[in-house]
């Protein structure tokens, strides 16, 4: 599985962005998906995951209520809608895929990583 993330950019606090991650290869529906982020000088952390069928989601406390994770199986694409962005959301965001949902919140459970997309939120 190859993952291609896009949608990052520079925004102001309070703005919104939508990240997309397109997956190529077979059996997209067999993978749980996740979004991780890594801020400068910090460890990579999971911000959201979604189950294979899209019925279950997880959000970290730091983004709960502001971010929404969805998937479109027909397009082999997942989306992270990010609203009410804060400067502390500034990071490189990585798309991830794995079969071991709900353990996908753990880096070691990720089977495939996409290249990151930079999100910068100015105050």
Structure explained in plain terms:
It is a single chain. Helices cover 0% and strands 50% of the residues. It has 123 residues and is mainly beta. Strands 2, 4, 5, 6, 9, 10 and 11 form a 7-stranded mixed β-sheet that branches. Strand 4 and strand 5 form a beta hairpin.
Compute the number of strand runs.
11
Helices, by number, come to 0
Give the overall silhouette: globular
Structural class: mainly beta
Give Rg in angstroms: 13 Å
Could you give the distance between the termini? 37 Å
Taken in chain order, the helices and strands follow as EEEEEEEEEEE
**Unreliable residue stretches:** none
Topology:
Layout: E1 2-6, E2 9-12, E3 17-24, E4 32-38, E5 45-50, E6 57-59, E7 67-72, E8 77-82, E9 91-98, E10 112-113, E11 117-122
Parallel strand pairs: 2-11
Antiparallel strand pairs: 1-3, 3-8, 4-5, 4-9, 5-6, 7-8, 9-10, 9-11
List the defining traits of the structure above.
mainly beta; single chain; 7-stranded mixed sheet; 123 residues; 11 strands; 4-stranded antiparallel sheet
In short:
The protein is mainly beta. It has strands at residues 2-6, 9-12, 17-24, 32-38, 45-50, 57-59, 67-72, 77-82, 91-98, 112-113, 117-122.
């Amino acid at each position: 599985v190859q993952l291609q993330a896009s949608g990052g950019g520079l925004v102001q606090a309070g703005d919104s962005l939508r990240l997309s991650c397109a997956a190529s290869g077979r059996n997209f529906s067999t993978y749980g998906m996740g979004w991780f982020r890594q801020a400068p000088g910090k460890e990579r952390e999971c911000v959201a995951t979604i189950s294979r069928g899209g019925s279950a989601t997880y959000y970290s406390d730091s983004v709960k209520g502001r971010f929404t994770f969805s998937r479109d199986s027909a397009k082999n694409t997942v989306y992270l809608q990010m609203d009410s962005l804060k400067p502390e959301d500034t990071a490189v965001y990585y798309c991830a895929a794995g079969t071991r949902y709900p353990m996908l919140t753990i880096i070691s459970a990720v089977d495939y990583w996409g290249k990151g997309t930079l999100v910068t939120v100015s105050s």
